[in-house]
Every structure is written in C-alpha cells, then in structure tokens.
UniProtKB/TrEMBL annotation:
PANTHER family: F-BOX/RNI SUPERFAMILY PROTEIN-RELATED (PTHR31900), FBD DOMAIN-CONTAINING PROTEIN (PTHR31900:SF25)
Species of the source: Eruca vesicaria subsp. sativa (Garden rocket)
Family annotation (InterPro entries): FBD (IPR006566), FBL13/AtMIF1-like (IPR050232), LRR_FXL15/At3g58940/PEG3-like (IPR055411)
SMART domains associated with the record: FBD (SM00579)
Protein name: FBD domain-containing protein
Origin: domain of life: Eukaryota
One Pfam family here: LRR_At5g56370
Annotated FBD domain residues: 255-324
Length: 324
C-alpha cells in the first residue's frame, strides 16, 4: 500500500484485506470514522499504534489478526466507541499481547487465545463486552473443554495478567463470556476474590453441568445484576459421573438474587436433575424475579418439568415461569 494512504484528509471509511503496509512516517487521517483491518501485515508495532492514534475521530475499529502475528497491539484512542479484535491460533505466544486504552469505548468484542496479556484501561461504565480469552492461562492447547486441573495450573501461571484484565473490565455494564473465560474466572477466584462488577446489569454465560457448582459464588461479584442468560452445553469428554453431577447443591444466595435480578433465560437440555435443581434454586431465592424463561433442547420432559415448577414456592410474587 502506498504512503499516501496515511495522509488522506477526506477519507471516512477504510477497509483493508490481506495487504502489507509500509512503515508510517507521518500519519494524518482527520476524518476517518470506520476502519476494518483483516489479515493486514504491519512492518512493526509502532505503525499500528500510530495509525489508530492519528485518527482523532475514529469510532469503529475491527481487527482480525493472522494467527502467526505475535505483535503487541496497542490501541490508544479518545474517540473509539466500538472495537472488535480477533486473533486465533493453536499456540500461545509470550510476546503477543493487547493493550486497550479507549475511555469512550462501549462495545468490545474480543476473541484472543494467543496473547499472554490483555490489558484494558479506562473502560467506560456503560461498556458492553463479548469475550473469549484462553491465552492468558498458558494452556498447552486451545480448547474450552480442559479439565479443572489444567485450568488451575494455567491460571496460577497467568495470575498477574488475569488480575490486571479483570480489574480493567470491572466497570462494564454487560458481558457475554465463553465457557473457557467462565472457567478461568472461577479458577482465579480460588487464588483471590474476583473484583466487584458493580455496574453489571446483563450477564450471558456459557457453561456445562460440571460448572454449575461455581455459579452461586460467581454471582457474588455481580451485586446489581438484572438479567442473567445461562447457555448450557453438553460435554461428554470431562468424565464427570452422572451421580456426581446430580449431587451438586446450591446453598449460598448471592446479593443480586435478593435485590436486583429480574430476568433469567436458561437454555438447558433437562437431561439431569441438577438442571431442575438450578431452576428451582433461582425461583426460590430470587426475591424480585419477574420472569424465568426455560428453553428446552427437547420437548420430551416438558409436561413433567412444568408440573414440578408450578409447585415450586417462589420468592417473588411477580415471578412468571415460561417453558419454551
């Protein structure tokens, strides 16, 4: 790409795909609002940093990084509002990382299993996050279905990076997290308490039966949560015996269930008693719950489920249970 690309006074939207950029000497893109960079090769880290920094009205940025690109991507912008960053590979790299310093950012979609460190600074209190992060725990392979022992070891090694990241996103208003990210946070909570996500209103978590045991303690970090989405996925590879799954109990009651949680959307298989147990727990303890939607993967147990749930005492007189 020619040098003049870096100095276009009227450019509003820039979309590049599989191109190689030259080193930037002077960058001035005063009107650039939207930039998509997919598999773009930068000569060095400074060129990318300057490209973003010298786009003073940039609002939307989408980046897809090649799997073998091990750079640290630093994003410093006072105007950026929406950011999507993706870097996926089968290997974690110590030199790879992401630094995000964008105080006006309110939508962040990040999928990165390569970076050893993901640092977020000055995140706004209304930010919406969608994240899938496994790279920080230094696993041998990238897969959301590792046993707890491997996650525990990986989290121990990446403890400092995880601490920085979690505190960086603690002001967010909404989060959608993968199962791997949920497991990282739960294992990290064994080492030190999770930060309080006091602004969090909406939380969407993907988890499997084995993860149910973590849920009440996990929700303690979201005291003002209003809407909870639970997406249950089956995992036949963990070797968790059926009888052990059904022995999982829910005893503690987090603050959000007592004071703020109004809507629950649970996408379940209803093949195990623990799923029914979780639904009953939410209905019995959620004092201000308005609606619980249970989305069944199979209709075979619908009538049986409905009868059980209708007989379950409800902490909230306004609670409506819907089975779909």
């Amino acid at each position: 790409m020619p040098q003049r690309l870096y100095n276009c006074e009227t450019l509003v939207c820039l979309k590049l795909f599989q191109v190689t950029l030259s080193d930037a000497e002077i960058v001035s893109l005063p009107c650039l609002e939207t930039m998509y960079l997919e598999y773009v090769e930068f000569p060095n880290e400074a060129t990318f940093e300057t490209l973003v920094l010298c786009s003073p009205v940039l609002e939307c940025l989408k980046i897809i990084v090649a799997s073998d690109d091990k750079k640290v991507f630093r994003l410093h912008s006072r105007s950026l509002e929406r950011l999507s960053f993706e870097r996926v590979s089968s290997l974690i790299c110590d030199s790879a990382g992401v630094v995000i310093d964008c105080p006006r950012l309110y939508v962040l979609n990040i999928k990165d299993n390569v970076s050893k460190s993901v640092m977020i600074r000055n995140l706004g209190c209304n930010a919406i996050l969608q994240m899938s992060l496994v790279g920080m725990v230094r696993l041998l392979e990238i897969d959301d279905d590792f046993c707890d022992e491997i996650y525990e070891e990986g989290v121990l090694l990446g403890r400092s990076n995880i601490h920085t990241f979690l505190h960086g996103i603690s002001m967010a208003r909404s989060i959608i997290m993968s199962r791997g990210t949920f497991k990282i946070m739960c294992q990290y909570s064994k080492l030190e308490p999770l930060p309080q996500f006091g602004n969090m209103c909406y939380l969407d978590v993907t988890l499997c039966l084995h993860d149910f045991q973590w849920l009440p303690a996990f929700l303690e970090s979201f005291p003002n949560l209003k809407q909870l989405v639970l997406v249950m996925v089956c995992d036949d590879r963990e070797g968790f015996p059926d009888e052990d799954i059904d022995q999982v109990s829910f005893s503690s009651v987090p603050e959000c269930l007592l004071s703020s949680l109004e809507f629950v959307d649970f996408q379940a298989t209803v093949q195990y008693d623990v799923e029914i147990k979780l639904v009953k727990y939410l209905v019995k303890t959620s004092a201000v719950l308005k609606k619980l939607s249970l989305r069944l993967a199979s209709y075979s147990r619908r009538d049986k489920m409905l009868k059980k749930l209708l007989k379950t005492p409800r902490a909230s007189t306004k609670c409506k249970v819907v089975i779909l």
